[in-house]
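Lecture notes, part 5. Sequence design as translation. It can be helpful to think of inverse folding as translation between two languages: the language of shapes and the language of residues. The source text, in structure tokens, appears below.
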């Protein structure tokens, strides 16, 4: 028994020295190939903001302006001559694709014209579109002699048109009050004429505003909209797009009050 144990012990020691023996030491792993340093990848450009204006509307050419003497106030490329109105909670004001955009604010977003502008006997016109939201997409505040007023387009839930204010009554309370449908994503030509004793306004080619102002108090509605004076455009809880902002001097009202 002792001789058998001695034999097995010697055999196990020798087996570790013989090639092919299962208990021999495992071969050293092959050296790894050198790894190339990781390439630095530049961060991806941020995706451009989704354009909420229908492509057909962007491509639609503006309607011609009636009459002569119109001067452009917006170059279609920059905010030259304009400054964002310092409303609390205002959205971004930007120019893209030839369009001046008032992104939705909480509640107002607007712009003010920074150059000289007439105070009487003039006409101002522009194309405006509601891009999102349900309230006024164009609050056009203008001088009326020594005072100011605002033409409200699409206010009070989306359909009201009128002048704020006449004899302290705003656009929903005086004789200029009108209601009409304003479609989202559609351009509207808005035109306002201020002459001695008269305020007249058109939507597209249809006259909607015709108010005598002699011996009446003309003012803007009290509140934040006063920041739009003397000449500015604002939207309330609504995103809007503007283009073709122009003005011209005139001598008289367009035609007699009906």
């Amino acid at each position: 028994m002792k001789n058998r144990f001695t034999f097995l012990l010697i055999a196990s020691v020798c087996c570790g020295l013989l090639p092919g023996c299962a208990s021999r030491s495992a071969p050293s792993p092959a050296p790894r190939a050198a790894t190339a340093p990781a390439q630095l990848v530049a961060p991806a450009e941020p995706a451009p903001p989704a354009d909420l204006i229908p492509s057909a509307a962007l491509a639609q050419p503006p309607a011609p302006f009636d009459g002569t003497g119109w001067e452009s106030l917006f170059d279609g490329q920059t905010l030259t001559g304009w400054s964002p109105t310092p409303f609390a909670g205002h959205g971004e004001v930007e120019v893209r694709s030839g369009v001046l955009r008032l992104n939705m604010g909480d509640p107002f977003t607007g712009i003010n014209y920074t150059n000289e502008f007439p105070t009487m006997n003039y006409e101002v016109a522009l194309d405006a579109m509601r891009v999102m939201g349900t309230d006024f997409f164009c609050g056009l505040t203008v001088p009326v002699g020594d005072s100011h007023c605002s033409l409200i387009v699409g206010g009070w839930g989306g359909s009201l048109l009128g002048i704020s204010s006449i004899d302290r009554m705003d656009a929903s309370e005086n004789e200029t009050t009108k209601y009409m449908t304003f479609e989202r994503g559609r351009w509207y030509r808005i035109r306002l004429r201020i002459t001695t004793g008269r305020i007249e306004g058109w939507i597209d080619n249809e006259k909607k505003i015709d108010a005598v102002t002699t011996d009446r108090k003309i003012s803007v509605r009290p509140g934040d909209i006063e920041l739009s004076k003397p000449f500015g455009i604002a939207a309330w809880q609504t995103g809007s797009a503007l283009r073709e902002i122009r003005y011209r001097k005139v001598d008289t009202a367009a035609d007699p009050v009906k």
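The translated text above is only one of many valid answers, since several sequences can fold into similar shapes. The helical segments are 2-15, 55-59.
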